Fold:
Amino acid sequence: MTSRRVSLGTGLVATSALVAFVAAATALVWSSETAAPGATRPVAFVNGTAISSDDLDLRLSQILPLASFHGNLPPAQVLSLKRAALDELVLDELIYREAAAAGRRPSPAAVDAEVSAARARFESDEAFAEALRQNGLDESAFRERVGRAVVVREARDAHSRPLVTETDLAAYYRDNGAKFQRPEQVRLRQILFRVDPADPATAGPAEAKARAALERLRRGEPFGPLARRESEDEYRVKDGEMGFVHRGRLDREFEDAVFAAPVGQPQLSRSLFGFEVFEVLERQPPVQLGFEEARPIIAERLARQRRVEGLRDWKAALLTGARVQIRDPELRAAKPADLVDADSLPGISSRQGAEGAAR
Structure:
């Protein structure tokens, strides 16, 4: 198998992207054949510094961690996300240049921690060194890349500490209190039969297993033991129990089926992940939140809003006078997607967070 070289290019790659790089490298089967010199091409220049196509692909894979679902997205959405990823790389490059000019240097301890995390993803130091070599790097060059990323992260953090006072919180609740309701929620348990998004042929067998499980439940078989034996997600260890969920937590098709279902009757629905056999155990109506209950929500919302505004102003200032050249006309004309809210990105279900909480 011929492996594709995962290049870090000459553009700036953020710390998380560096970790993503080594994670991806562990999954590759390294061979003696690597990409030919120059195979990675520059897609943009920032004040003369190139951002490579590999850098862009890597950042896009961070934005859409469910990479196997990319094929389900319309080309226009992929292009919009790709442009957003490119804008992030451009911003990182400008942030680094500003920070370096101000004399900011990365903390050696932070760089050590990132490099150690990267090395830990490989079976041995030799395997790590080989992965770097395949990408035209040695550990010293890799540490330099990590150091640049740490500088960017620390500079971003320094611009992301908005002050939110008690007066701000009280005023926001006074003006928006009616909006703070705990939405309708249901206590849910489910059994998942996964479908591989890259292999449509897996849908038929998964649906057949789901329908068979539904019939067994309707004949009186206990839900919990069946979930433990057959469910293909983390909730099986909890007898399929997901606890209380509200609208916006599940992917749309599954959510619509759940909130339309009667209490206490097993049902079957398709979801982003496969086929779900589920049962609603309890339903709770919307509840108005008092100020103390709403306080942490308001604090997070105001802080986030001010962080976004501050970053937007900072970005505008950094771009003033910067020379940014995007080589691809289609990418240059594309409108970037809004990356402020990751849960709103197409193809990413908040079920991911729910599954993580179940671990």
About this structure: The chain is about 50% helix and 15% strand. The beta strands are 42-46, 49-52, 181-182, 185-194, 241-246, 267-270, 274-284, 287-288, 324-326.
